Amino acid sequence: MSPERRDTFRWRDVPHLLSTRLLAAFLVPTLLILAVTGTAVYQLARAILEEELGTSLSNIAAATASQLNGERMLTIEPGDDVGGTRTWRNVVRLLEGVREASNVRRVFAVDVQGRVRADVGGGLPVGAEVPELARDRLELARVFAGQHAASQVLFTGSDGRLYKTGYAPITLAGQVVGAVGVEGSAAFFGPLQRLSRTFAIMGALALAALAVIALLTARGLARPLRRLMDSALRIGRGDLTTPVPPEPTREIGVLARELEEMRGALEGRDRQLKMMLAGVAHEVRNPLGGIALFSGLLQEDLRAGAHEDARAHVERIQREVAFLQRIVEDFLAFAREQPLARAPVEAPALLSIVSELSSAEAQSRNVVLDVEASPALLEADGSLLTAALLNLVKNAVQASPSGGHVRIHGAVRDGRYAIQVHDAGAGVPDLQKERIFEPFFTTREKGTGLGLPLARKIARAHGGELHLTSTPGDTTFTLTLPLGAVSPPR
């Protein structure tokens, strides 16, 4: 597989990766939150309900113990339950009343050795040891020390249900002589389990709903991203004419607009590059043809001994070569990006230098240069600004009639420095005004068409602009530049 196809394949995978990541981003945190929250709530609710049940059972046991006579309880001996002695019956009647009133499973009374003195609901005979007491040794130690207590864990009864036991001491003359145990059902555990299952079902439904939302969101994002991806691939393949479609989504819409601006800029540069190449080819073709023609004539004249004619042909060839050299220099100056070497430049001195450099050509055309510059300090690249202004003044001199004036005027205007180059020539026709700053557009036979585009490029590189206003007999190029940090006093 070629690198291009591999890259395209990776780009095609982006929407699917986005869907997968969105699903993970939605579901994984939600699943963790539901699991942790559900488990914590369940454990907390169970702990609270268990504590409440233990407290309730130990309070019932305490109320029962307060009604028992410790001395009479201790008189109950093994076999009293078989013979049905009055003391045993009275204790059992009390315990049965507590059991019915409290709706508990079992109520029993034991001595400090853990032997049964009465057992309602458990069925153990008098004198038997209660097996469950071995499980609650720590709790019983506290009870025999005179405190209330409840078993720390739930236990499963013979019916398969969960139970808990509450204990309270039986006292005689301030001494603990036994304990009452009350076993109650943890009836809350069934609804709590059902609530837990309901919570799990609701959590699963919530996860399913989030999965659907995530898929819809991923698809909603993947479609515009796929369109952006297709546009980016088209641009990468060199298709700069197909516009990037706008997107309604705010964030992706911003990306689409930025991509469209990038495409437009690339298309403009591509169009400009093609135009420049075509212009270079056109401009170079004419002098090359002249050089080929005059070199052939030169060869013939040299063979015939016509040295004067040969000298004229050499001069023509040299002029064509010089024109070629100027085309190449102007093209390179326009094409390459030159970093600005900014430094303080005094505007009057800049315009004076431009006037001096243009004076020779102005004199040869019988044109007068008038310079007037208000004091100002510019932060600029002096050499590049000089080149730009020389182009403007040269064009004005060439457009001026013999005996005309070219006025070079500089002044501060609206917080910027405006340099105007004015001539009284024939002016620029309206149809040509729109193309005057296009590279290689020229109306002169030996013009390269790069002077004005280069001047505007230099102006914009300095944060300024170059404008043209022209009517017959009144043409003005205005170059505006930002002022420096400090201006000299007026």
TrEMBL record:
Entry-linked Pfam families: HAMP, HATPase_c, HisKA
Xref: CDD domains: HAMP, HATPase, HisKA
GO cellular component term of the entry, any: plasma membrane
The keyword Transferase is assigned to this record: yes
Claim: Methyltransferase is one of the keywords in the record: no
Subcellular location: Cell membrane
Record-linked Gene3D superfamilies: 1.10.287.130, 6.10.340.10, Histidine kinase-like ATPase, C-terminal domain (3.30.565.10)
InterPro entries to which the protein is assigned, alphabetical: 2C_sensor_his_kinase, HAMP_dom, HATPase_C_sf, HATPase_dom, His_kinase_dom, HisK_dim/P_dom, HisK_dim/P_sf, Sig_transdc_His_kin-like_C
Catalytic activity: ATP + protein L-histidine = ADP + protein N-phospho-L-histidine
Keywords noted in UniProt: ATP-binding, Cell membrane, Kinase, Membrane, Nucleotide-binding, Phosphoprotein, Transferase, Transmembrane, Transmembrane helix
Enzyme Commission number(s) of this protein: 2.7.13.3
Enzyme class: transferase
Domain Histidine kinase: 279-485
TM ranges: 21-45, 199-218
Domain HAMP: 219-271
A GO molecular-function descriptor: phosphorelay sensor kinase activity
Topological category with respect to the lipid bilayer: Multi-pass membrane protein
Name of this chain's protein: histidine kinase
Organism: Myxococcus fulvus
Lineage: Bacteria, Pseudomonadati, Myxococcota, Myxococcia, Myxococcales
